[in-house]
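User: Hi! I'm a student and our assignment asks us to look at how structure tokens line up with a sequence. Could you show me two examples?

Assistant: Happy to help. In each example below, the sequence comes first and the structure tokens follow. Example one:
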Amino acid sequence: MSSGATVVLLDETIYCQPLLRAWIASIFLEGDSTSSAPLFVVKWTDKIMDGFVHRTMEADPSRSATSVNKVRQHLEGTFSFGRIKKYSDVKSPEPPAPVERHVHAAAIHGSVDYVVTMHCSDSAERIDLSYEIYSADDFLVLLDDSATSTVHAVVEIELCRAHARAKAEDGVDLPLLLKEAGAPEFSKRVRGHLQYVDPKILSGDC
């Protein structure tokens, strides 16, 4: 990642993965431990958030619109300065697979460095783009490469949260959860971080 704050656009498929969006948000909020500047900036659009709400309710019809929109409001609040406005996808160039036209148009208009999607593949066309396309897994690994201490701090935070949510008789396996959510390589990084986490943090006030 560059020395300045990298601008990232998460598409709706990322927001529809609760665990991965939580990890990205936690790393975003933790920030760069070596600088006062943000580690990266997350951009979003109303259309992406609309897609998140639609996909979520379609996948789980039992959920109310109120509960899903509360999640949306929380995400928009977390990335409060990231809204991309006044762009048009009507006349935008044909986007590269797997990026949707409206995401492509927003990425160009918002001067985005990375578009992150769950639909990324090694065969994705990346030539002559003003941005790079990353899977959530690759993006999280990139964050670990560039801000290892920040990711380690978030591993401790997420470990505490997972233990707080789990029943006493249940174990917590963060790497397994990440692997099942679609981040197998990052799960290996987290397993490595866990080797250096002091178990005493779980007995304190996480």
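Example two works the same way, sequence first and then tokens:
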Amino acid sequence: MSRTLHFSSPDGTSVSLGPGKYYIEQFGTSELRLTPEGDKPTVTILAESLTHEQYELFSAMALTRPQKNDEFLIELLLPGGIRLEARGSTKAPPDHTKIATTATPASPPPIVQEEEAPINGTIPAVISPQTHLENSGASAPHSPESPSLENTLLYHAPDSPSPATRVVVNESQPGRETVYLSVLSPDHIGLTMFEQPALFWFIAYPTSQPVDVMITDESHTQRLLDVRMLPPIQPGIHKVDLRDYGIRLQLNTTYQWKIVLQGLNPGESHTTSGWIMRVTPPDNVTTFANLQPINTTPTEPLLEAGLWYDAIWALSERLHTNPADTQALTQRAHLFEQVGLLPPAKQDRAHLPLP
């Protein structure tokens, strides 16, 4: 946390949390326990027991969210749909008494993004990856559609893709598996027509380190999301649903989102990032914007309109509903291949039945 926050303790007294880094965990049915970095005493704050819809959450996930009127939330999402929410304030109450500790000052947390929910994956390897910077000008093929299943979906990148760079962690070392960490985005600014879309990312190996997820605006002046997923984290495709965090994308505004895998030592983190913009869809697609759930949305018109994120979301939800949907698996793998995301495409194809 970057500033002092004020919460209520279980006995009703006021608690101050100073700037710094904290480890957060459930403590009882309606309490959160925070352990500051360094040799400082733990702090217990009052929390409300609620629910969340972050499907396939395999480990606890903590996040902070500023609200209106100086209110501030600390939330802990747990597997099984349980969410503990503590409501505090950036302003001390009039009768404020300092009971809690102030954490050791720490450098600002890494720019990261949120969320994720593993789907599948079986590529074990934990090695120190390096960052690979991809070209920003490539676009997806525009060849005529083939009647075969492989080419039933073709991604049509915007006619003039906005310049941007997708960053992927990709490294191979002798005697070890290839390390691969990537946001599942095109190599330019990807489009969505939704105010609260879902984003997906991929990790090709299990890790015992935490992963941070973050969304910022193009100028990096506004941080919409900054959450941490606690280990262990399984390999595979993970989901970040903006609806779970109350985040809304503004029309025609560009955002950068990042996934940061923390290292064993300071300075050893590894970051993958991509870009997203919400746009007004063409008339022939507008009617699909209100379809619920999204897995009922036809993906062909989405891809023809260049709505990458929406098409991947629709296919992923179909696979969540029916993991044996070979058509959705094949089509999603084909889309990954079109934008150079080969390891996640390989994983999808590995789950197809043998011919």
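Here is something you could point out in your write-up. The radius of gyration is 21 Å.
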